[in-house]
Amino acid sequence: MTGSKTRTWPIARTVRVDLRYQWASRYFLYTLVCFMAVASAFAVGAYATALSAVNSLRQEWAFLRQEGGYTFERAVGLGSDPTDDPLKETWESAGQAVANLHPLQGTVNLLQVLCFVIGPLVFFTYGAIAPTRDAHYKTLKFRAVREGPRRLFLSQVVALTAAVTALTAAAFVATLLTSTALHLAVSGRVDTRLLEVPGDLSPADTLPTLAMTLATGGVFALLGMSAALIVRRPLYVLPVFLVGFFLVPILGRFDPRNLLMAIAYPHLEFVGGFIPPAPARVSELVAAALLAVGTAGVLAVTYAVHSRRSLYTT
Fold this sequence. Notes:
Blueprint: H1 2-24, H2 27-68, H3 72-75, H4 88-99, H5 103-129, H6 133-137, H7 140-147, H8 149-186, H9 207-231, H10 234-246, H11 256-264, H12 284-310
Helix pairs in contact: 1-8, 2-4, 2-5, 2-8, 5-8, 5-9, 5-10, 7-8, 8-9, 9-10, 9-12, 11-12
């Protein structure tokens, strides 16, 4: 038992030092502020979408009533002829748009935007910047001699994983507060008399999106860390990643972006305006295994390069 404590204490101390640096450098705070800003912008957009959808429904209904003599039930497919429903799609879309303003549904929608749109870039950037402080401040050789390359690298992986987990939890709380505040602020401002609004989600319904956000954040943060440690300058890899992620099309079934979507698509429902394209066909288990093996392989290469370099860096 004593030997176990002796072995585990140094790595715990190193992880604590790395986490303290991430906190003191305000990287955690900057990332959370970025998430909150994006969530707030999309939350306001959700309200504008709901208002526009309801107004469009009322205008189309007024036209059909005046020009075609439709009753509302007939127009939305609730009459004797359910195929004569020119307003059904608009009616259902308006109801869902208003449902997107509910606290938990809104939280899931905002998390999906963070997970698949802004999250990869933010987590990749976080992973590229936070673990490269030793190269930036010229302390790599000192820490490698004092703590050993293996413990130092493992500490960076553990600290980054812990930070991503904490950021994901913080993003969930931030989006929940944002969506709840929006719901309270706009309650009663949207006329729902013509609508059939779906109920809010249950807390358990948020778990798949939360888990996917955590997985996406972990993969891209570790990839960012590996790229920055190999190149030694995060500012070199960030523009390349930005262009590759947003401008380069998905390169086949085994592109990491497609693999993540292959895992997410069977378990997530996209109803908040953000609807990503369906992924190329890949089994969920195969996609998860490829991502895990690929990330582990990249980390192994990074460790080999970084540990060798740490012995000679001045």
